[in-house]
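Recap from last week: sequence in, structure out.
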Amino acid sequence: MSKNIVIIGGGIVGLSTAYFLLKEGHQVTVIDKSDITSGASFVNAGYITPSHIIPLASPGMIRTGLKMMFNSATPFYMKPRLDWDFIKWSWYFHKSSTAEKVERAIPVIKDINIISRELYTDIKSSGDLGEFQLERKGLLMLYKTEASYEHEAEVAQKASFLGLEVKELNKSELKQIEPDIKIDAKGAIHYKCDGHTTPTEFMPKMVAYLKGAGVTIKTNEAVLDMKVSGGKVSEVKSHKQVYTPDEVVLAAGSWSGELSKKLNLKLPLQAGKGYRINVARETGISIPAILMEAKMAVTPMKGFTRFAGTMEFSGINTKIRKERVHAIANGAKSFYPDLEIHREEIDRAQTGMRPVSPDGLPYIGKSDTYNNLTIATGHAMMGWSLGPATGKLVSEIIDGKRTSMSIDAFLPSRKFT
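Predicted structure tokens:
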């Protein structure tokens, strides 16, 4: 039976959810406070990453954050502040950062990434969006030190055990597959299982398709409140109008935590800010890479190469810290010594907020409190990779179908103590 569904949030998760709900015959409205041309879904590295099997909440991360707390140029920066929500989230993050919990998360992260990778392929094969970049060149984990190699080799062993395609490359082999750019690295671990896209190409094409297929997309419209009655969300109120949906999907990214408070829900969530620099000239880089010691990503996209990274916990804000942008440029130079990122390219850097749950796993599932509310947020650095899988899972949840995988690890009601 067709339902009237309101999706709050027009990022990759919200639009993917609209796509799969539309395919099931529902009437869908997407509401976003922006014009859907910027933010985390546009400035990310574009990775589709089954290889990213380790959640952000892993042993040692809080200690790393505390060490870097007073240096805003570091890759993992937690701005000191008296914010009770942040303090609680930090405690939950600490409690989640155990070896046992990471081991439980690894196969779950792999499974949802594999589902999403195949759904990206299905979307392209459908022709709905027309032509868009979707390549499967894998991902290079470039390292300079033995310590970095040993760390990643351990991850690679786990990935290989799970059936993912992994290969170790020495300096000579690295040169063979990346011949057009000088790389200052001892070697690389090549995750052949990974793919990449150009988000600034994919997102407008998805918006255009959804509009043409009958989805209503409301931009520059902020949701201000929600009314509840009889155990349901009965109204969604924006500053422009009131909606009376059958079902509501909360997919507002880093703003989901604040919106959940309007329903008296506890959804621990913090905004993890990332940055990107685009270089719209030939770099010679043809394969996506993580520069391990610099803790940043490099992606050859359609028409430019993107250098992206950092995780900054400083609340929801769009302030660009120049020292963090320069750290990305310097990190790129350290691995690609012949590459110069120009001042004007640095000056055009952009930022986006990633929604981060305390355990690094997304929230995907029905609310325990309101039976017509489904939550889909908290994907941390895997939002782009997991967008289609999340959209598919949400459509299955709303339709009461058996989900493509178990969502127990993603339930919004899970405890972090």
